[in-house]
Amino acid sequence: MRAPRYSLDSDVLAEVGEALFGPHWQNSLARGLGVSSMTVRRWRTRQNTIPGHAIEGMAGLLASREDELSLTRQRLAAAATAG
């Protein structure tokens, strides 16, 4: 059985990177995915195709951030009602 093929536009890559790490996202995203920053730059400039495992990795990073933000929002709400 073949692995599923994924496609991710480089603009969406930038959107994900900025959502996770802010305007200077490329090095941080590379660290998060365990790839070189040069690899991320090649994806961004469309010199290389973004592999499926990297897309799945970004989805995992987004899910982790979502969980962190949810917990932070809950703490904030608890603090607002306590004070």
Q: Work out the oligomeric state of the chains in this entry.
A: single chain
CATH topology: 434 Repressor (Amino-terminal Domain)
Strand-pairing-aware structural class: mainly alpha
Average pLDDT rating = 92
Tell me the overall shape: elongated
Query: For the CA atoms, what is the radius of gyration?
Result: 16 Å
Please give the domain count: 1
Number of strands: 0
Percent of residues in helices:
over 70%
Q: Outline the biggest β-sheet.
A: none
Order of helices and strands: HHHH
Beta-strand percentage range: under 5%
Distance between the termini: 57 Å
Task: Give the uncertain stretches in residue-range form.
Answer: none
* CATH class category: Mainly Alpha
- CATH level-two architecture: Orthogonal Bundle
How would you characterize this protein structure?
By secondary structure, the protein is mainly α. It has one domain: Orthogonal Bundle (434 Repressor (Amino-terminal Domain)). Helix content is 71%, strand content 0%. It is built from four helices and no strands. Helix 1 runs parallel beside helix 4 and helix 2 crosses helix 3. The chain is elongated and about 55 Å long.
How would you describe this structure in keywords?
single chain, 83 residues, mainly alpha, 434 Repressor (Amino-terminal Domain), elongated
In short:
This protein has 83 residues and is mainly α. 71% of the residues lie in helices and 0% in strands.
How do the helices and strands line up, and which of them pair or pack?
Layout: H1 10-21, H2 26-33, H3 37-44, H4 52-82
Helix pairs in contact: 1-4, 2-3
